[in-house]
Amino acid sequence: MLQRNIWMLSLAIITSATDIIYYNCTCHGTTFCSGETCVGRACFVTEQILSDSPAIHTSRGCFNTNINEQCNSRTEVSRAHCCFFDFCNKNVTIFKPVEEPQVTSLVLVTVLPIVLFVIFLMLFAFLFWKLKESSRKKSLPRLIDFGHVDIVNASIVGDSTLGDLLDCTTGSGSGLPFLVQRTVARQVTLVECVGKGRYGEVWRGLWQGENVAVKIFSSRDEQSWFRETEIYNTVLLRHENILGFIASDMTSRNSSTQLWLITHYHDNGSLYDYLQRTTVDPEACLQLAVSIICGLVHLHVEIFGTQGKPAIAHRDLKSRNILVKSNKQCCIADLGLAVVHSQTSDYLDVGNNPRVGTKRYMAPEVLDETIRTDSFESYKQTDVWAYGLVLWEICRRTITNGMVEDYRPPFYDMVPHDPSFEDMKKVVCVDQQRPNVPNTWSSDKILSALMKIMRECWYQSPSARLTALRIKKTLNNLKNSLEQRKQDC
């Protein structure tokens, strides 16, 4: 077409001296058009970039004068194209203005760096998060098998109840991988504070309509939170007489970091609270005693195998750290001072918690500092001492011959309300005193048996004390004999 235009233009110049050639052209988009066609010495197409719109305005028509000037018209926002045969401008379009590639280049120069900068920021944020998570994992040694987190679909939490999540697990401490623990923790709503202590606070919370207990540790007791989280995630720790663990997480509330430990919630509260407001009969007393020792035995025993469990000593057993369930059985709580031992790997993990146990419940060897800290058996023996004191607390609130005594803590009549280390050392080690055991307990078969057990828990020599397993067998035999007697009657 270009060659033909050149040929027609040449022909027009040659013949211009004698004759002027006119062409029929398509006409629209211009004020000179009176119809759809026009006749002129050249057909033209013009395109103009509108200042108020991204669209291009196209005009088609005829030139009759100043053809060379008009056909060569070209500005930053408009350009023209001429041709010289009938209706040659009908379907002709002009190329985009030469300035547009410059606009594209300008866009690339300005926008592309911004896009790359945003991508860089996102990558930096991701790497920073990964580094922080890696540091967090290192600070929780042996806490959770993080290698399996990636197979967990956190969305299951939204479709499950607490019972579903925990019942479907076997052989694990928490029953929940770390990813799901954090998801659960962030869905808990705090309802009311139900207890305070040196460690922090305990709240009743709600998760999907179910009550849970949220233990919020103070910042100074961070090591206890670490230790409890670590212990509760021990394989095969779950037991009906050990407080059911749900989740552990660091969470930010009110511009401060809080350490949460989420467990099952028990309306009856601690054994300490329960005994102050409730009396029990001998059978209920025995049930409380059996359930506590069952939990302690499970802690003390080491289960061998690839899915085994190390032996654990509590080190702070007391009535405040034992909860009473709705079925009037007990479960042991607060493992912040626990010691872990494994014969398989030959290690004794005492932890690095600077906190000591409760002075009122300390065994003689702890008070006079003769305990063998390199021996796991020594820590188990201190648990047995403390169990004997808890047993005494329960027996005091047991009705015998229509009589019952007020609740009192161990050594209430020998030391101040908040005894010092030296107070307890003088009473237990120097004077070798023990809680008073009333003679009236001897008249009841159950209390008489419990009285004998608690005294064997209080021997000055640790090696002379009963083991938790021996106590459990003795109490189970007593329980079975009582049940058999009932059947015979």
UniProtKB/TrEMBL annotation:
Q: Which residues cross the membrane?
A: 106-129
Lineage at the top is: Eukaryota, Metazoa, Chordata, Craniata, Vertebrata
Q: What reaction does this enzyme carry out catalytically?
A: L-threonyl-[receptor-protein] + ATP = O-phospho-L-threonyl-[receptor-protein] + ADP + H(+); L-seryl-[receptor-protein] + ATP = O-phospho-L-seryl-[receptor-protein] + ADP + H(+)
| Known cofactor(s) | Mn(2+); Mg(2+)
How is this protein positioned relative to the membrane?
Single-pass type I membrane protein
The highest taxon in the source lineage is Eukaryota
Q: Return the protein name.
A: receptor protein serine/threonine kinase
Query: Per the UniProt entry, what species is this protein from, by scientific name?
Result: Eleutherodactylus coqui
Q: Where on this chain does ATP bind?
A: 215
Listed GO molecular functions? ATP binding; metal ion binding; transmembrane receptor protein serine/threonine kinase activity
Checking InterPro entries in the record gives: GS_dom, Kinase-like_dom_sf, Prot_kinase_dom, Protein_kinase_ATP_BS, Ser-Thr/Tyr_kinase_cat_dom, Ser/Thr_kinase_AS, Snake_toxin-like_sf, TGFB_receptor
As for subcellular location, the record says: Membrane
Segments forming domain GS: 160-187
Task: Quote the EC number.
Answer: 2.7.11.30
Question: Could you say which protein family the record assigns here?
Answer: Belongs to the protein kinase superfamily. TKL Ser/Thr protein kinase family. TGFB receptor subfamily.
Q: Please name one Pfam family that this protein belongs to.
A: TGF_beta_GS
